[in-house]
Amino acid sequence: MSNIKIAGEEIEILQCFPIIKQLRPHLTEQAFIKQVQRQRVKYGYTLCYLEDLGKLQCVAGFRISECLCDGKYLYVDDLVTDELQRSLGYGEKVFEWLVNYARVNGCNEIGLESGVQRFAAHRFYMKQRMRISSSVA
To answer: Where do the N-acetyltransferase domain residues begin and end (predicted)?
Structure first.
């Protein structure tokens, strides 16, 4: 049975590191913990993780913000499933959780950016009914 939780304690943040590192290989463990804690305080950055079969399978980092053009929105900074567990539905479960979290917190939409070279990620996001809305040069 899978379980999605918010990583609030330092030990939970640390447990997310091996999966986040697959998406953000430049990070070191100590820098990751400090940056997550700093971003939480300054920007409301939140890490959530899906645990199944006794281990973390998927991690997402997100924040809620607001702007004049879109109103309140949830922005996904990071979403990654363990590379050995992809295509098993874990990313979809976390994405669905994020949609519900946004809804409960009064957000009008969800946004994210994905590098143009990340074709598998784009297929995943399109399957989740995301649309490509703009690009920046």
So the answer is: 2-137
CA-CA distance, 74 to 56, in Å (whole number)? 23
CA distances (Å), origin 39, targets 4, 43, 99, 133: 21, 5, 21, 26
**Distance (Å, rounded) from C-alpha 27 to C-alpha 59?**
15
Q: How far apart are CA 22 and CA 27, in angstroms?
A: 10
For the segment 9-64, what is each residue's pLDDT rounded down to a tens digit? Answer: 999 999 999 999 999 999 999 999 999 999 999 999 999 999 998 899 999 999 99
Q: What pLDDT does 86 receive?
A: 86
CATH number of 3-127: 3.40.630.30
